[in-house]
Amino acid sequence: MSRVFLTVLDAAGAGEAPDAAEYGDLGTNTLGHVISACHPNLPNMAAMGLGRIPNTGYEWNGSVAGAFGRAMEVSKGKDTTSGHWEIAGVRVMQPFPTFPDGFPQSFIDAFEKAIGYSCIGNKPASGTAILEELGAQHLRDHTPIVYTSADSVFQIACHEELFPPEKLYEFCRIAREMLQGELGVGRVIARPFIGQPGSFVRTGNRRDFSMPPCGRTLPQAVMDAGMESIGVGKIEDIFAHEGLTKIDHAAGNPACMDALIRFMKEDFNGLCFTNLVDTDSVYGHRNDPKGFAGALEAFDARLKEMVDLLKPGDLMIVTADHGCDPCDISTDHTREYIPILAYTPGMTKSVNLGTRSTFADIAATCSEWLGLEDRFGAASFANDIREG
Length: 388
Fold this sequence. Notes:
This protein is of the alpha/beta class and 388 residues long.
């Protein structure tokens, strides 16, 4: 039996990428700045080599048994979709379109006609700020709030008492079908919320409606081999429900960790791919380094439980998909290296994986570990881990 547990700490970037200037992200360093500002206690990640990854700045005097390194992104972008797809072996060489001035009025008119409601917003905005700005009008006029960001997204926010989540998902499916070609955003995102003016709160019923991957992915390869391909959190949405045999659409890091631990207690051959979103959506985008540090500590505390549940032949990889530096003046994603921490039972030495030229090396490694032929045009570091 071979199992791979691939976990993405969303937005936990490891320092500006070589091309960060092209994205306006010089000087960004999500992990380094959070660690410097808040000094989180992360002994279990440190024992796998966190502090030896360049620019993290985590001080650790204890021993290290695990593989550590970082990877550069080849894909044109710095968002959830391009990051996860490249981790899974697919590079996005044509960037998804963004709409810094909002979507064309012709599209908004057609979308309003399709859903039967007028919309408000249609501009780049923080998800919490736009609720403060337009939430009262939304309640008064029953007008869905549409907005975007620096990423390639079309987001629709609706109060759950006016438009229950299933109705909001219907709006999103309509938008997903319409947003093709030059308007083909990476994701259409449902953003349900509750509360009253001055105290609106987004709920855990968020859903992402992604473009299908533009190539063969690691989950697809695993499923095609007759193995289990499990998605936890928003993995199913990121991959447009393709290549997965089981899902647990848990919302928030604690629930996602619970789901991951449950799967770790099961016997199966294959992959368990988990996204932990809170570091991104709750803390990174809200410029909250203290909250980000707390989320890292909460994950680290459960990492020991994960290690104890690993069986001989298992592989665990912890990584990220991009940055979202909460110490930066922007609330947007940042173009950064991603960290790589890897461990298999029986490792006694530290293994420096260096700087990988593509996130897809992770897919190649997972595939080789599971005995599959796919390498996704990348270089596996499976043998380096085995030698540790």
